[in-house]
Amino acid sequence: MKRRKFLQNASLSSLGVVASASVIGCKNSTKNKGAYTSGNLAIKPIVIATWETPNATAKAWEVLQNGGTALDAVEQGCMIEEADVKNFSVGKGGLPDRDGNVTLDACIMDKDGNYGAVMYVQNITHVISLARKVMEKTPHVILTGKGAEKFGYEQGFKKENLLTESSKKAWKKWKETSQYKPIINIENHDTIGMLAIDTKGDISGACTTSGLAYKMAGRVGDSPIIGSGLFIDNEIGGATATGMGEEVLKTVGSFLIVELMRQGKTPQEACEEAVRRIVKKSGDRFKDFQVGFIAINKQGETGAYCIHEWFSYTVYKQGENKNYKSSFYNKA
Ligand code: ASP
C-alpha cells in the first residue's frame, strides 16, 4: 500500500489548544487505533476527512483556528485535494470516464440544512466552490453538466483542462483491455468527504470527487447526492461516504447514519450499521467493492467503518493532525 508522506505545520493560536508548530509524519500512521473521544467533552473545533488527506484537514483546521465557519473550512479543505493532480479521484487529475472525459461531482451542506450540488461538470477544478455558489446564489440545489459549467463561468470560475498527462496515460492503458473493475482502494486516496465543527459548535460538510474511474459517460455516483454521499443535521451530526456510489445510493447511507445517531447510536455504531446494511443487501457482491463512511456527532465524537481493509481517515483535533486506519467488516 503506497502512501504519501506529508509535512504539516500546525500553527495553533489563541484558542488554548496545544500550541507550537508541529511536524507530523503520516507514514505508517494508519496504525493509530481510532479517533474516539469522550462523550462528555464537546471537542471543537474538529475536522474529519476520508482517506489520507492531511493537507486538506490542515487547511480546514487553519480556517477554524482563525475563527472561520465550518462551511468555509470544509470548502477550503476540499479545494486542496481538488487542486492536487496526484489525487486521481478528485478535481484536476481525476481519472476520466470511458471516453476520456474528466467529469466532477460535488456537494456541500451547511449548519442550517442548506445544500448545493453540481454533477457531471467538466473543465472546472473547484467544483466544491461551484456547489457552494449553487447553494448560495441560485434558487436551486442541483445544477448538472453544461448548465453547471455555464453558471461557473458566469461566477468567474476558470476553464481548465482537467485531464493531466498521467491520467491520460492511465486511461490509454485501461483502454487496452477496457475492463470495468472498480479499484477497491486507490493508493489510500479517493473521494474526499469532510465534516467539521467550528468554534461556535456548528457543523458543515462537503464531498467532492471525479467518481469511479472509467465510468460510463453520464454516470453520477453518491457523492453529490444529499443523504447519500453527505448529510448534515446541525442538531445531531454529519456523515459522508467514499467508495462504490451505487451501493451508497441504494441505502442513502449518510442520512441513515445521521438518523441512527439521532436514535442514540454513537458515530462508530452508526457507521457500522450502515455498512452492514449494504453488505446484507449485496449478497456476495460486497467482496468486489469498497464502501467507507465517516461520521461525527455534535459532541465531536467520531466514527468510521468500511467493508474492506485499508480505508483510512484523517482527523485534526486538539492540535493534532492524524491519519487512522478504519475498522472493517470483511475479515475473511
Ligand atoms: N463515491 C464515489 C462515486 O461513486 C467514488 C469513490 O469514492 O471512489 O462516485
What does this structure look like?
The protein has eight helices and 13 strands. It has one domain: 4-Layer Sandwich (Glutamine Phosphoribosylpyrophosphate, subunit 1, domain 1). β7 and β8 form a beta hairpin. The N terminus is likely disordered. It has 332 residues and is an alpha+beta fold. α2 runs antiparallel to α3 and α7 crosses α8. The strands form two sheets. The chain has an eight-stranded mixed sheet with strand order 4-3-2-6-5-1-11-12. It has a five-stranded mixed sheet with strand order 7-8-9-10-13, covered by helices on one side. The two termini are 19 Å apart. The site of aspartic acid has 12 residues, from β8.
Ordered list of secondary-structure elements with their pairings:
Layout lengths: L45 E5 L3 H12 L4 H14 L20 E6 L5 E7 L5 H11 L4 E3 H10 L10 H13 L14 E6 L5 E7 L20 E4 L3 E7 L1 H7 L1 H10 L4 H15 L9 E7 L4 E5 L5 E6 L2 E6 L1 E2 L4
Parallel strand pairs: 3-4, 10-13
Antiparallel strand pairs: 1-5, 1-11, 2-3, 2-6, 5-6, 7-8, 8-9, 9-10, 11-12
This protein binds aspartic acid.
Aspartic acid (ASP) binds next to strand 8.
